[in-house]
Description:
By secondary structure, this protein is of the alpha+beta class. The protein has one domain (18-166): minor pseudopilin epsh domain (minor pseudopilin epsh fold), CATH 3.55.40.10. Helices cover 35% and strands 29% of the residues.
Amino acid sequence: MRHLIARRRRPAASRGLSLVELMVTVTVAGLLAMAASPHLADYMNNSRLREGGNVLQAEALFAQSEAIKRNRVVRMTTSGSTIQVLEAQDAAATTLLRERTLAGGVTAAAATVDFSPRGYLVDRSVAPSVEFVAAAIDLSMPGVTCSSDQRCPGLRVDGGGGIRLCGNKLSGC
């Protein structure tokens, strides 16, 4: 019985946070956010560039598969943030198959890549049917200098039609 009376006399523990505890927590969270912000900007830029590279690779694969499926020459062109896939059997009269825009300020180097009906690359500057010419398209963003921290991807298409996306065009893509 004495034990129960002792419990009743003890004051109830206070609940919640004091103003001092709350201010310390907010200050520590602010310092951590300030320390992480430069790395967050790098992460966001890398993420946008990587997503642009994935879109570019997907469009190159689409152009190649359309060339094989249609048994015709299909062209992929890049200009700024626009990627176009065109049926280009006749170089003077092309038909737009698909157009995509790179998001987040990502731009691709201006390039034209023609896929033959067999899925190989075509070099129209030599002759309309000469194959086995490699192509390279690099991605960039305004205000971003490519480095080991800011990885700018590059699309590489070999003469045999192999398409690969390099994680960083500076590291021997």
